Each structure stands twice: as structure tokens, then as C-alpha cells.
Amino acid sequence: MSAITLLGPAEIRALAQRAGIRPTKTLGQNFVLDGGTVRKIVRQAGVTAGERVVEVGPGLGSLTLGLLEAGADVVAVEIDPVLARLLPGTVAAHVPGLTLDTDTDTDVGTDAAGAPDAPAPVVVLRDGDGRARLTIVTQDALTVTELPGPAPTALVANLPYNVSVPVLLTFLERFDSLERGLVMVQAEVADRLVAPPGSRTYGVPSAKVAWYAAARRTATVGRAVFWPAPHVDSALVRLDRREPPAATVSRQEVFAVVDAAFAQRRKMLRSALAGVAGSSAAAEVAVRAAGLDPQVRGEQVDVVGFARIAEALHAARPVPSGPGTVAP
Q1: 140 labeled binding residue
Q2: pTM flag (> 0.85)
Q3: Do the annotations mark residue 158 as ligand-binding?
């Protein structure tokens, strides 16, 4: 493969200017200017040649090019139609040998009223062997339920700050083919994602991520590598998929207990779970059945403990009676 050049600060600003793009706080856009940071992300993600990687929020293409440089095939999910339309040309200019799939079209058309049509929902760039190296999906990541092409095995992304946790949890839930992830998020969000029970930052994101994966913070990223520079530092979080806790109840039931436990985090479990259990007394019985002290708070319970509580609550619910059933 011919050498791939990554985007530099001057080119990123020039691309944005030509396209009339100004990064917006609404979409949480902060573009990475530094090639060294891009390569660090790719390296810590353990990306290998030929691997299918999903990237959320490719923006102007800094990380996309880094993933392609490592030999990965990338499916990029971009909510901003202007950025989605700009990306194919940028990548084709930096990755020799890629051509636009003849079945896709990035030209701007107009509707009957003369307004611009929506961008093609899926655009594919292929190499000389016909392999899809880059697939661009123009869609809100929170609404994506399936991805074109082979199932991705890794999520690697500079996640938009304002939706980083919902996007991460959504992709872990919907795409069980994901074996690992490396995401860049605000430093304080990183601390919450990797926090163990008992720590000050342990909460809903910590417990829910732990259902899917082991998470650890791998590096801090300074503000100067972004444009525009954010007001906070960022950090890289590595996630490695593992089996969820063995439980006889659904993930949704476990997560309902997690949400209730942290809705008023200073309350003891017997009080915090009164709503989902039906009463404080019922909550206390369930917490004790799970082998926990009902006076502990949610911040002291790991995801396995929450699963045991959910099982106890489920077991305590009365069996419905009606046609075809025999009341106890």
C-alpha cells in the first residue's frame, strides 16, 4: 500500500473553511489536529490490518485516515451531512487507489422546491481489489441499529463530548460483535467510565459499562491537540468485551435497579430502591436476599451485586393469574 498522509492543522482549517464549516458545540465537535495523537489512539486500540472498525463522528477525517493507515476497513457514522459529504473526497486525496463505489453518489441534488437533497445515506470507497475500505453512514449514532458490510470488531472514536456516554452504551448494547473499543472522551467522563465501586466517581456509567466490558483509562490528552481547543482535558479509555454477569433476569431489569440506586445516590439502598421494589420493606428484603446490607449505598455495589438484587426483586413479584393460569 502506498503511504498515507495524515491531516495537519493547516489542512484541517483549510478544509473547514472551504466547506463553510465552523465546529459547533451543539454537535460536540472538536477536531484532532495532531497526527501523533491519532496514531496513539490507533496503537492503543490494537487495530490490525484487515479488521473492520466502526468510528463514530469522523468529522474531517483525522482519525479515519489513521485507521486506514493501519490497514483497517472503516465504517464511519457521521450525523453532520456536510461533513459526511466532505469525507470521501478528503480520504480519496490522502489514500492512493481508492475510488468511489459506482453505486453511490455524493453529488448534491435538489428536490422539487429547489432545496438540497439529503446526502446519500451510505457511501463506499473501494480499493483496486474491490474491497470496501471506507463506508460512510450519514445518521445519528444513537439511532443506528445496523451497519452495512461485515460486523465490526472494534469501536475507535473521538466521541462527541455531549453524547459520549449514550453513544458508547448504545454501541455496546446493539453490536455484540465489538470485541474492544478505544474512545476519547472528556477526562471527567473517562474517570466515571472506569471508576470502581466505592470511589467518588462511581455511578451509572461505571456500572453499566462494567456489564459489557472491562474499562481502563490509558492516557490523558491535552487541549492543544484539538480545534477548537476545549475547556477541559480529554482522556483515552480502552474497553475489552467480557461476558455479562450470570443472571436469570434481563439487562433491562438490572439497569433499572442501577438507575434507581443512583437517582438519589446518598440514599441507602432500602430507600433508593423503594420505587422499583414497591416499598422500602420490599427493597430491604431483596437487598438482603442478594447478600448485601440494605444500609449500603449504590456507590458501594458492583454490577454483579445489582444483578443479584434484580433477580431477588423479580423472584418476589407475584405470579399473574388469569385465563389459563392457576393462582397460587
Answers
A1: yes
A2: yes
A3: yes
